[in-house]
Amino acid sequence: MSGTVSKSYYEHDDKVIDYCNKLTIKLHPMQQELQDSTLANHKMSVMLGAPEVLTIGQNFLKLIHAKKVLDIGTFTGASALAWALALPDDGQVISMDVDSSALDQIGRPVIEKCPKTAKKIKFHTESAIDTLDRLIADGQSGTFDFSFIDADKVNYSNYYDKSLQLLKPGGVILVDNALWSGSVTKANKDESTKAIDACNQHISQDPKSNSFLVNTGDGLHVAFKV
After folding, report:
1. pTM
2. Do 142 and 166 touch, CB atoms closer than 8 A?
């Protein structure tokens, strides 16, 4: 993986990052199985979320005693599984993606081995914008605790704004791929990079949240609704 950052399941030369990851990542056996299966069986396995980011998210869920989670971008279900494992028995993850093929092929067979965990997750196969708008229309604004954004980059700012509306005060938003292999620092940016940079700038300047951007995984922007 090119750039200044890398996910821990790829080799990299930064011994400091490697040291931090080894002391951070704590994967449940189901998570390990799902990660291994994704890396071995999907041609776009690079889309898999960094386990260090998922561990950070799980710790936030426990810290804020979260029960309701938005998971924007399902892929094989690794992030949805991470959140479900960290939630109490009455917790709920709403995971959304326009394509369920990777989930059906790789994720479901792993997740459904544990009905107790699987029942916490509701998968929606449609535009995440549509799902978020429907939740808002249904009167669920201000009822969610946590949102993880890892879907199409051109909609990052839209996902952030809608997540912020749906979150309670004190709720946490994690925006993954916030550095995009370091490309956000380059002069020539493609459409996805421009959208990520715009979202980072928007979050940093937003008076409705407090935030920080960290160089872990492929970059993680963390925002807290005020």
Report:
1. 0.95
2. yes
Q: How many residues does the chain have?
A: 226
Query: What token pair was written down for 52?
Result: 């260090």
List the one residue out of 33, 46, 163 whose CA is nearest residue 85. 33
What does each C-alpha distance from 186 to 34, 152, 181, 189, 193 come to in angstroms? 34, 20, 11, 7, 9
pLDDT in single tens digits along all 226 residues of the chain: 334 446 777 766 788 888 999 999 999 999 999 999 999 999 999 899 999 999 999 999 999 999 999 999 999 999 999 999 999 999 999 999 999 999 999 999 999 999 999 999 999 999 999 999 999 999 999 999 999 999 999 999 999 999 999 999 999 999 999 999 999 999 999 999 999 999 999 999 999 999 999 999 999 999 999 9
Strand-pair partners of 95: 71, 123
What's the per-residue H, E or C state across the chain? Answer: CCCCCCCCCCCCCCHHHHHHHHCCCCCCHHHHHHHHHHHHHCCCHHHCCCHHHHHHHHHHHHHCCCCEEEEECCCCCHHHHHHHHHCCCCCEEEEEECCCHHHHHHHHHHHCCCHHHHCCEEEEECCHHHHHHHHHHCCCCCCEEEEEECCCHHHHHHHHHHHHHHEEEEEEEEEECCCHHHHHHCCCCCHHHHHHHHHHHHHHHCCCEEEEEECCCCCEEEEEEC
